[in-house]
Amino acid sequence: MNPKTNRRVPTSQFLFGSIVILVGLLLLLETTGLVSTSDLLVYVPVLFVGIGVWALVQSRFRNVVGPIVLIFVAGAWQLVALDYATGDEVVAFWPVLVIAFGLSILLGQVRSRARTTNTAFTNAFAAFGGVEKRNTSKAFEGADLTAMFGGVELDLRDAGIEDQPAQINVIALFGGVEVVVPRDWNVQMDVLPVLGGASDDRPRHENTTDETDLVVTGFAAFGGVSITD
Question: Checking DSSP bridges between strand 151-155 and strand 224-228, what pairing results, if any?
Answer without folding.
Answer: unpaired
